[in-house]
Design a protein that fits this description.
Elements lengths: L25 E4 L12 E4 L7 E13 L7 E9 L8 E8 L5 E4 L6 E10 L4 E13 L35 H13 L3 H15 L1 E2 L8 H7 L1 E2 L1 H14 L4 E9 L3 E11 L2 E5 L16 E2 L1
Parallel strand pairs: 9-10
Antiparallel strand pairs: 1-2, 3-8, 4-7, 5-8, 6-7, 11-12, 11-14, 12-13
Helix pairs in contact: 1-2, 1-4, 2-4, 3-4
């Protein structure tokens, strides 16, 4: 592949189609502008036999019931989350809601989008259903992250200040969370080592047990139990406790069937990197296969 030179932090996705699974593994690639070697030899991974991208038909709905015998519900606004638009990873198209007077709103900071429906009245003992269909295209991600010092991970930009602050279910200012985070921080030698140590602490100390509702990081640490939501919340809280920007992602993961899932993102070297704390893969930042929708 001949590629014109661009700034150092630019990422390329190069698609190469192979039929044989014998080609799995770790390879090296030369990037050149056709006249001279632009980059040194780089290593990269194939995605363990997974296709580079997949498209899924997503159908998402919510039912609103009025249980009252004689009382109407007036002026109810319902928001239904839409898939994220993540450059180079995920997009959606062909949105088909089941109501005509629908609006789409977006939050100013994270880019989360919502389908909004205003119900003027819901009659007693009745139900309304808000639903949409769309096609979601997702790509696999092979991360090649330059390891940096752990100190370079620390928050420095006002833009990301909110991602080092405590919030509901991410109690990064709690004494128990701060003390664990400091122990992990002190023994870590670099950014990737810190991420690996946080994941290992979570998987070693918190028993995976499904929860009926979202319980949060402090609950998981105090009780030593939680599911993927608590694993992700603990990861984010431990990062934030040492001023490393991190945030939650909620979505769906496909194994034998689609299930709700939660994972996290951590900010390294001017980019958000996805990390799944409940994944058993040993790498600090393993490849993300195209089997999840955020």
């Amino acid at each position: 592949h001949k590629i014109p030179p661009t700034p150092e932090n630019f990422e390329y996705i190069i698609q190469m189609n192979f039929n044989s699974k014998m080609l799995r593994g770790r390879y090296k690639i030369l990037i050149s502008n056709g006249k001279k070697l632009w980059k040194n030899v780089k290593e990269f991974n194939f995605l363990d036999g997974e296709p580079l991208s997949k498209a899924f038909k997503l159908k998402y709905s919510i039912e609103i019931k009025n249980p009252n015998d004689n009382t109407e519900i007036y002026d109810l606004k319902v928001l239904l989350s839409l898939p994220l638009l993540i450059p180079s990873f995920q997009k959606f198209e062909g949105l088909k809601p089941n109501f005509k007077d629908i609006k789409i709103t977006e939050d100013a900071f994270d880019g989360n989008k919502w389908l909004v429906k205003h119900f003027r009245k819901i009659a007693p003992k009745s139900m309304v259903k808000l639903e949409y269909e769309t096609i979601v295209s997702v790509r696999g991600i092979t991360y090649q992250i330059q390891d940096i010092t752990k100190e370079e991970m620390v928050y420095r930009s006002e833009r990301y200040k909110r991602y080092i602050l405590p919030e509901r279910h991410i109690e990064s200012n709690a004494t128990a969370i701060k003390s664990i985070a400091k122990l992990i921080w002190d023994k870590s030698t670099s950014s990737l080592d810190f991420i690996k140590n946080v994941k290992e602490w979570i998987q070693t100390n918190i028993k995976y047990r499904p929860q009926e509702k979202e319980m949060g990081a402090l609950y998981a640490i105090n009780n030593r139990i939680g599911d993927c939501t608590e694993y992700a919340a603990v990861f984010v809280a431990l990062c934030r406790a040492v001023n490393v920007p991190a945030r939650l992602i909620a979505g769906f993961l496909k194994s034998k069937k689609w299930n709700r899932h939660a994972w996290a993102e951590v900010y390294i070297k001017n980019k958000w990197i996805q990390v799944d704390p409940s994944s058993k893969k040993k790498e600090s930042i393993p490849n993300i296969t195209p089997t999840r929708i955020a």
